[in-house]
Each structure stands twice: as C-alpha cells, then as structure tokens.
C-alpha cells in the first residue's frame, strides 16, 4: 500500500508513526493484549493533550480503560491520581485490579471501612471520602493531578448525587477530571456544564456495543426474537409476539368464563390451544432452557430479595445441576478459603450450608441483604465461570464487574419505594448492559419472560430508546453550608453554588418556559376576542359564573373537612381492645383496635414525612390481617361496638396468634350490625352568597344570549390558559437562583442557632463541619446539649444508630424495642431535639420534601446494635432484629462511620469522644469485621 504513496507522503506517514510512538498512549497500549476502540483512543488522546474528558458509553464497552490511562499518566508525570467510585464493593474491586497491574505499593484504598496504603500515588476511594477530604483541606490533595469519577451518572441519585457535584465544583483548577458515565441522552449538556466549571472538556459519546445485544421473549416452550430480521435501522416488532398479545387480550378472564358457561365448544377448544402455547415458564425451566441453548452464564434480575432466595431454592428442589464434579470441588475449595475466618456457629446462622449447596451446583443469589463476604464470593465464582446462574436485585447493575452471556428480566415492573412502577428505558439499558462478555462472547442476549398483559410494543420501546437523561439532585445541606462559609465566606459560597449543574439545568429550562409564556399571551388575545358578546360584558358574566362555582366547591370542601374532623375526633377516643366496624376501604368490616395510633400532625414514614389528619389505628381484621389504617378508611365517625381483652402473649407477627384472636373477634362481635349514617342537608342549599350570585347571573344581559354557552366555553379556555400562564411565570421566578435562595435560608437558620456569625464559623459550626450525613445538624445539637454524656459505648452506638437507620418497611409495625435506662432517655431527648429543629425548619421555610432538612430519627436499629455492641451472639441479635445479615452489617458499618465522626467532633476530654472510639471497637467484630479487603 505504501508503494502507492509519493516520497513526501511516505515521509509524512513515517513522522506521524514516530510521533505516535513517542506518546504516553503508545506505552499504555502495549500494556493490553487487545487493540483500543476509537472512542477510547479519542478520549486518551484528549487526556494526554491536557483536557478533561467526559466519556459516555454503554455498560461493558470498556470506558474504564480511559480511567486507567489517567492513572498511567499520573504515575508517568510523578503526580497523584484519585479513582472514585459510588459504592464500596466497586472500590474494592477496582483496588484489586489496579494493585495487580501497577503493584500494591503504588495503589491505596480509602472507603468508610478500609484504609490501605492511603499515601500511595494512586488511591481508589468512594466519592464521599474525596468530598470530605476537600472540605477538610487534606494534605493528601497536594500534588493531585487527576481525578477519575467512575459512574458519574450517579449524580442523578436523589440521596447521594449532590456529592458528585460538590467534588466537581470544589476540585482545584489544576486537577484534570475524567468523568465516566453510562450512555445518557444529555451528555452534551453535562459536557457544557463541565466546560463551564472545569475548563476545556472533551465530550466523547459512544453508542456502539462491542458485543452486539439480541433481544428475546420467552413464552411457553419457545424463545421468540423481539425484533424481525430486516434491513435498515428501524426494527419491526416480531409479528408472532404481536399476534400472541392480541390473542391473549381477547381471551376471556376467569369471571368472563364463569358468566359465559354456555360458551361454544369450538371457542373452548381455541382457548385451550392458546393456553397451551402461552405461559410464563418457571425459574428452573428458564435456566434449563438457557443451558440447552448455550446461553449461560446468566443473571436473572428479580426486584425482590426474598424472591432471589426463593429462586435458588426452587432450582435446588428441581434437582438442577450446572456444575460437574471437578467444578463442584473447585467451588468448595474457594468458598472454604474465603470463609475460613468465620466461626462455625456464625456459619449456621448465616445459612452457609444451604448457600454452599447452591454454589456447588452453579446457582446463587446476589442482593444487599447478603453478607458482603458471601456476595464477593458469588462475584468471584461467577467471573470464573463456576457459578452459571445468578438471581439478583437491580443493585448488581451498579458498576460491579459481573458480565454474563445472557440477562433475564422476569418482569418490567418494580417497586420504587412508594409504588409498583414500570422500569424506565435507562434502567432497562443498565440491566441488560450486563449481557455479552467482551473477548468471550460473540453476542449477548436479553431475555424477558412473557407475563399476562405483556406488550411487545412497550418492550420494543424500552429496548430501542436511549433516553436516560442526567438530572441533577444537588441540594445544599447544613454541613455543606458551614464548610463553604469557612473556606470562601458567604458571598463567594453563594456564587459557587450558582455554578452547580442543578442551577445550570434550571437556567436552561427557563428559556423554553419563557417561549411558552409568549405563545400563551398570543392565545389569550384570540380567546378574549372569541368570547365577546353583543349583549354585554361577557368577561364580567364569566367572572360571576366562576365565583359561583368556586363558592360551591368551597362549601363542599368545608363539609368534607367537617366530616373528617368528626371522624378524627371519634378515632381519638378509641382504646386498645375496642371492637369497631371499618366503614370503607380495602379492610372494611369488623376489626379489633390493637393500638389507637398517632396524634394528628406529622409522622415519619419510611420515605420521609407523611401528614396525617388524625390517629391511624393499628387493627386486627376479622380476616386475620394486622394493618395500620388511615383517615381515608373512616369517612364517617366510628364508635366502639364492643370491648375485648387482648392477650399479653399476642404477637402480631405470629399467624397462629392472629388466627386465634380473629376467631375470638368473630365469635364476640360477628353478629353486631353497625348503625347506618344518615346524610344531612347540603350547606349550599341555605347559603346566602350562592343565592346572591345566582340572582346576579340571571339579571345579567348576557344571560339571555342565544350563544351564551359557546361564549362560556371560550371564557373557560381563556381563564384556564391565564391560570397556566401565571403558573409558568411563577416557575420562571422559582427557577432562577433556586440553589442560592435555599442556601440563604440555611445560613439564616444556622445564624439563628449560633453556628454562623456573618462570615465567621463559630465553635459549634466547626463541630458541625466535621459531621456528615442526613442528620448532621441533629448530631451536632446532641453533642452541644450533652445528650450522650455518661452513656456506655453500647448505649452510644444505639443512639447513633437513630441518625443513620431507615426502616425498609412502612409504619405498620409496632413501636421498636429500645434499650432501657440512659439510652432510652437519650433517644427520647434526640426525638425532642428533632421536633425543635423541625419547627425551626418550618419557620425558615426549609422543606424536607425538596431534599433539604432533617428527617425524624428512626429508632428501629437501636436494640440490635446495642445487643451487638454489648457482646451478644449473632444468632440472638439477628433473630430479635428480624433482619438479613447483609442489612445488619451495612447498618453497623454506617453506625461505625458516624461514631468515628463523633469521636473527632466531640470535645477532646469528653466521655463521648472516648466512648465513641470504644463503641467502634465493640461494633467492629465478627461478621461486621469480615467484609474487609481480601
């Protein structure tokens, strides 16, 4: 080929090759036994040229190569590189990878749990650790040249996302930032913001998957391709799937079949044939099918921990074996080596032997409720090909390196903490992105199981859409405020916050809203003209109609409010043992009051504050269900029909207890028929204002217009558009300087509480600056008021647990068990201090619904961590806590993290600092200590 070039062209090509070989990238490429993709080369070239980079590419495409090139550049230039990840498991994994490549002496690890070689030139850490370093002005930041932010799309996370923006904003200008993200639809917008706050940033977007992904639907005995094979980029949905969905939709339901008993024999035969073709295969059947098709290893995503464990058991009961004898022996060797430090008595509690049996057969679960050591073993065995079927929750999709040949989704619906919702295209992309192992598989496979009501078009939309917008979740916090003011003063801090991605997005959105306002104003003119009436002022007539409608609505609301108040007053009179009749709702009928419930006002639910109009009684229904009812279940007042004694031995979690008491309830009061409520006269019938407005309407000239209702329809459109326009104008006003306004309110509250005095941070403020977490201000106030003085280490651990723990369940459970004595008093005082802070936040318009402020402390983990810190065995602690080992370990580690902060923030000579350090040692034992770096 070079023979075709002229001498000048050959000389130019030789010079280009020589220049490329002299670059750091050339040395770096020699470290890998495979060639780099064009997007990797483009990103690495930009990095070597001194630019920051944002790389957005699909899962498994190899974007971490760019992060590793930043490590290579830092070592070559004699600078430091910090490699940040969102989760500890990913940090541990990356530490192992880099230590293997560059040597353990050059790589360190810093997470909330571990500190390994933290002075090394390359340190892997969680993003929170780097944020804390920046605020503390750590010496480790000296000579920092590069920061890699892996999984940077995490800044959309509503709970932790702000940390990513804090780091990006506060890093020194001299630091080159490498941002690695999943494929997002607004990468250019995010890149524009990075360019604004970090300087020259190259945006590299790659949609290409190195291993192509094929989409399938498994229905009955057959696996269907989701898309038809065809030319062009626009793929058509497989017509077989569309036809099956149409057939299933036309199939009569059970009720329809009962109603149509006289169905013709031919129809019955057609239905039998349909049913024989379409069903949802069982989990063992799916794995066997994938094994026969050569599609293992596979990850099956099930959005429930319990269902993941159940799936493994179902496969074991079905006699499924995916490993031969040689693989089984190898699995046992690895497992015994990795779990050698766990005592035998703990192994029994942790379900070790059942877990091991699944692993030996090549089957495992993976979810947050598992012991971290167990999860790490599953990950290692899966990567080695010794576990071939993993049933996992979506947490596995978050960056952990566990690629598979196939990914199976049982359903396209998941519980989002508040309701069952369809998974988004972004979530679908993240989950199925695991399918296809680079360098091993020629192609990856995503398999969705057929479910009743399945829509092939909906699945095609998920599979074909790449809309995964990156949205900022940035909000100022109390800790952030004092740290910023201490470093930069109030004015400069305010300016810094205005540079956040949140404000950048808000400001851009205002442009579109302003255009809409202009269009609306033009439309208002047209509507006004259309409602003109030749008999009189129709605008005035429309106003009278609207006032009449508003008055009727107000009276109806007042009547409903009165009925609710009467119902709430009746509920407040209930006592344990009262037999009532629930008038409406899912649990209508006979019920026994177990607990009258909370007083009217605010209470803390599992996802933030919930407002209650009155008490929420916990009841046992005649159908043996224990439920906490809401005011909506009592539209009318309720009164006790009878009284019953509740046995002291009654346990609401015991099915036998519920069955016995429900039987006694039916025997005692099953024959009682409640009185029916009489409906009163409507308030609107006697209202003078309504009578006056109706008289004026009838007397108005426009009332007699033949086209009155036509004019009224235009008037209604006019007022609706005017209302919408006013709302848009309020949104414009609300979106400009939103972050700074929230910061101003936080600063005013902190000034009121003597944490700040102008630009000066007081002693109290300096203590707050060392406390990170959702309840930073509450922790600071507890230290300030001496709430924890005189507590033992175990009692202090119990109190600190209330700052970090959040129950996964709602508030249907009974009050949690608490340690007696000083700990119980201190926990009560913490709740009272929170009440005082909550009132202050309301006064200063700091709204927790917007992600700012202090949630109520949750006491649900206090007894478990108290028992553990007091030296009790794992079996006893987990049995009483009714909590999976993985959750127990995770919450203990969060308690340890905050205890460490408290020991640093508390006055040096105080018993709190001393006992916090002792509590860390008492909690960091047994299973809690096992999950360190292997």
* Helix coverage percent: 40-55%
Topology, number of strands: 26
Helix/strand structural class: alpha/beta
| Fraction of residues in β-strands | 5-15%
Structure in words:
With 934 residues, the chain is an alpha/beta fold. The chain contains 35 helices and 26 strands. β18 and β19 (589-595) form a beta hairpin. α3 packs parallel to α4 (64-77), α31 packs antiparallel against α32 (874-881) and α33 packs antiparallel against α34. The radius of gyration is 32 Å and the shape is globular. Mean pLDDT is 81; it is low at 254-263 and 600-612.
Short description:
Helices cover 49% and strands 12% of the residues.
Question: What does the secondary structure layout of this molecule look like, with pairings?
Answer:
Elements: H1 7-21, H2 24-29, H3 38-48, E1 52-56, H4 64-77, E2 80-85, H5 88-102, E3 107-110, E4 115-116, E5 122-126, H6 127-136, E6 144-149, H7 162-170, E7 176-181, H8 187-198, E8 201-205, E9 213-219, E10 222-225, H9 239-250, H10 254-259, H11 265-277, H12 283-292, E11 298-301, H13 305-317, H14 325-338, H15 344-349, H16 352-360, E12 363-366, H17 372-383, E13 389-392, E14 406-409, E15 413-415, E16 420-422, H18 425-432, E17 444-449, H19 456-464, H20 478-497, H21 501-530, H22 538-572, E18 578-582, E19 589-595, E20 601-605, E21 608-612, E22 618-621, E23 626-628, E24 642-643, H23 655-669, H24 688-699, H25 708-735, H26 738-752, E25 756-757, E26 760-761, H27 763-768, H28 776-784, H29 793-804, H30 822-843, H31 862-869, H32 874-881, H33 885-905, H34 911-923, H35 927-930
Parallel strand pairs: 1-7, 1-8, 2-5, 2-6, 3-5, 6-7, 9-17, 11-13, 11-14, 12-13, 14-17
Antiparallel strand pairs: 3-4, 9-10, 15-16, 18-19, 18-24, 19-22, 20-21, 22-23, 25-26
């Amino acid at each position: 080929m070079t023979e075709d070039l002229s001498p000048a062209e050959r000389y130019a090509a030789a010079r280009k090759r020589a220049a490329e070989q002299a670059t750091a990238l050339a040395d770096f490429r020699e470290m890998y036994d495979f060639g780099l993709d064009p997007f990797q080369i483009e990103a690495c070239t930009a990095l070597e040229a001194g630019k920051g980079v944002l790389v957005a590419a699909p899962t498994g495409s190899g974007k971490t190569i760019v992060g590793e090139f930043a490590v290579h550049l830092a070592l070559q230039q004699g600078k430091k590189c910090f490699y940040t990840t969102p989760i500890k498991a990913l940090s541990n994994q990356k530490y192992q990878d880099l230590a293997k490549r560059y040597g353990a002496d050059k790589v360190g690890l810093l997470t909330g749990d571990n500190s390994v070689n933290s002075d090394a030139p390359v340190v892997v850490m969680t993003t929170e650790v780097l944020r804390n370093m920046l605020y503390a002005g750590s010496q480790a930041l000296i000579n920092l040249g590069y920061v890699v932010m892996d999984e940077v799309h995490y800044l959309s996370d509503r709970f932790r996302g702000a940390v990513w923006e804090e780091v990006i904003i506060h890093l020194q200008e001299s630091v080159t930032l490498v941002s690695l993200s999943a494929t997002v639809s607004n990468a250019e917008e995010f890149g524009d913001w990075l360019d604004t706050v970090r300087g020259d940033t190259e945006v590299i977007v790659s949609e290409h998957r190195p291993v192509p992904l094929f989409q399938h639907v498994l229905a009955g005995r057959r696996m269907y391709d989701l898309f038809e094979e065809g030319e062009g980029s626009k793929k058509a949905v497989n017509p077989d799937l569309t036809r099956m969905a149409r057939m299933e939709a036309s199939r009569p339901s059970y009720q329809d079949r009962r109603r149509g008993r006289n169905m013709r024999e031919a129809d019955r035969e057609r239905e039998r044939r349909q049913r024989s073709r379409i069903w949802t295969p069982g989990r063992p059947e799916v794995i066997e099918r994938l094994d026969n098709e050569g599609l293992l290893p596979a990850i099956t995503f099930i959005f429930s921990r319990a269902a993941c464990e159940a799936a493994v058991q179902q496969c074991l009961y079905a006699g499924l074996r995916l490993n031969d004898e040689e693989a089984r022996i190898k699995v046992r060797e690895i497992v015994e080596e990795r779990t050698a430090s766990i005592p035998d008595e703990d192994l029994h509690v942790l379900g070790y032997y059942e877990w091991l049996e699944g692993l030996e057969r090549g089957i495992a679960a993976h979810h947050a409720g598992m012991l971290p050591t167990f999860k790490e073993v599953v990950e290692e065995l899966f990567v080695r090909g010794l576990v071939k079927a993993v049933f996992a929750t979506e947490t596995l999709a978050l960056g952990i390196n566990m690629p598979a040949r196939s990914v199976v989704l049982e359903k396209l619906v998941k519980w989002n903490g508040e309701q069952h919702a369809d998974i988004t295209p972004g979530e679908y992309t993240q989950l199925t992105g695991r399918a296809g192992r680079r360098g091993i598989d020629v192609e990856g496979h995503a398999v969705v199981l057929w479910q009743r009501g399945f829509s092939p078009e909906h699945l095609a939309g998920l599979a074909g859409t790449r809309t995964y917008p990156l949205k900022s979740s940035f909000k100022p916090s109390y800790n952030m405020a004092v740290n910023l003011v201490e470093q930069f003063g109030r004015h400069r801090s305010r300016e810094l916050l205005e540079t956040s991605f949140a404000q950048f997005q808000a400001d851009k959105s205002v442009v579109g809203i302003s255009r809409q306002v202009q269009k609306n104003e033009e439309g208002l003119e047209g509507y006004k003209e259309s409602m003109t009436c030749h008999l009189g002022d129709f605008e005035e007539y429309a106003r009278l109609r609207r006032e009449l409608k508003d008055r009727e609505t107000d009276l109806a609301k007042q009547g409903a409010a009165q009925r609710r108040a009467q119902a709430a007053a009746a509920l407040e009179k209930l006592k344990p043992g009262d037999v009532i009749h629930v008038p409406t709702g899912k649990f209508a009928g006979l019920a026994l009051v177990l607990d009258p419930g909370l007083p009217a006002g605010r209470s803390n639910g599992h996802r933030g504050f919930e407002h209650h109009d009155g008490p929420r009684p916990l009841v046992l229904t005649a159908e043996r269900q224990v439920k906490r009812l809401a005011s909506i279940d009592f539209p009318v007042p309720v009164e006790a029909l009878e009284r019953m004694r509740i046995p002291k031995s009654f346990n609401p979690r015991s099915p036998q207890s519920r069955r016995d008491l429900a039987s006694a309830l039916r025997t005692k009061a099953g024959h009682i028929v409640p009185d029916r409520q009489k409906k009163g006269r409507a308030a609107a019938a006697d209202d003078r204002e309504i009578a006056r407005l109706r008289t004026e309407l009838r007397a108005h000239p426009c009332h007699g217009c033949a086209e009155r209702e036509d004019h009224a329809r235009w008037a209604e459109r006019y007022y609706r558009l005017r209302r919408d326009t006013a709302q848009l104008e309020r949104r414009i006003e609300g979106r400009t300087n939103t972050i700074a306004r929230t910061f101003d309110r936080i600063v005013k509250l902190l000034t009121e509480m003597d944490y700040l005095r102008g630009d000066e941070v007081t002693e109290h403020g300096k203590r707050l600056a060392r406390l990170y977490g959702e309840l930073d201000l509450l922790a600071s106030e507890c230290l300030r008021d001496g709430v924890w003085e005189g507590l033992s280490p175990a009692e202090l651990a119990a109190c600190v647990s209330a700052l970090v723990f959040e129950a996964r369940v709602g508030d249907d459970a009974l009050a949690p068990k608490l340690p007696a004595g000083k700990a119980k008093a201190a926990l009560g005082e913490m709740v009272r201090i929170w009440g005082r802070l909550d009132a202050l936040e309301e006064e200063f318009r700091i709204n927790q619904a917007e992600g700012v402020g202090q949630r109520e402390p949750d006491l649900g983990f206090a007894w478990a961590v108290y028992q553990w810190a007091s030296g009790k065995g794992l079996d006893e602690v987990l049995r009483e806590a009714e909590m999976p080992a993985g959750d127990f370990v995770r919450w203990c580690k969060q308690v340890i993290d905050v205890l460490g902060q408290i020991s640093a923030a508390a006055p040096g000579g105080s018993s709190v600092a001393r006992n916090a350090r002792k509590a860390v040692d008492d909690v960091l034992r047994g299973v809690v200590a096992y999950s360190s770096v292997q």
